[in-house]
Amino acid sequence: MMARQPITHLVCDCDGVLLDSESIALRVLHRELLPLLPALPGAAGADEEEARSAALHSAIANRLGMYTDLLLGELDAEFDLSLTAPQIVRIHETVGRACGDEAQPVPGIAEALQAIRLPRAVASNSDAPRIENGLRRCGLYGQFEGRIYSAHDVGKPKPAPDVYLAAAAGFGVDPERCVAIDDSVTGVRAAAAAGMHVLGFTGVAHDRKAMARQLKEAGAHKVFDDMRQFPELICELIWLR
Question: The pTM is what?
């Protein structure tokens, strides 16, 4: 069995890895979709309404990281929301605007990136304006300028590997030379399918323990929840190759 190539490049997901925006997307999606749930027959009690709201909230949380239009399509089918095309466009734009306007850097990410000397890129399912606006807001744009890849521009969204493969191609290196960091099952599957070494991050997850298990099952080689661990994990990968 041939040894893997040495790790020389870093590819980061955006939302949930660089930007703490997943909670914003979850809040906005829940707020926008809750009124669209079909009315329950008869007089629904408070417990039934609370249970429906919790079920929708959980369904959204489990799909964060997906292409927003696909996420909305799955929720529409599961909850019979009867979403129209204009509603999908409006919700998509509302989520993107909120994430761009309100996102904060993931705690410790700036310091971690400063300590990691590898060339880096962003590979995300979000559209390019949302990625760029968020990175500028959080003071991280200069770290990735010219190396921002959106699934909207390169082909199929995650879990297809296209956006991670585009990042490797932009570097001009084999994907095996890249380590990817992602916080979603969708993203981990995409990076693994691209042939990259994959780190799973759970630091801003809704349920860290459950997400850690899911990321490992999806193909993450290691999972961590504190960005202070990130540089050390990268060093281990470099020296072990």
Answer: 0.85
In Å, how far are 38, 48, 54 from 43, measured between CA atoms? Answer: 13, 10, 19
* Lookup: tokens for 241: 């190759």
Nearest to 174 by CA among 193, 195, 189, 155: 195
Which tokens belong to 12? 């980061």
Question: Whose structure tokens read 């981990």?
Answer: 188
Question: What DSSP state is assigned to residue 16?
Answer: T
Which class would CATH give 9-20+104-240? Answer: alpha beta
Mean pLDDT per 10-residue segment, the chain (241 residues): 75 95 90 90 71 92 83 94 94 87 93 96 92 92 96 91 98 97 96 98 90 96 97 86 47
Q: What does 196-235 look like in DSSP terms, one character per residue?
A: -EEEEE-TT-SSHHHHHHHHHHHT-SEEES-GGGHHHHHH
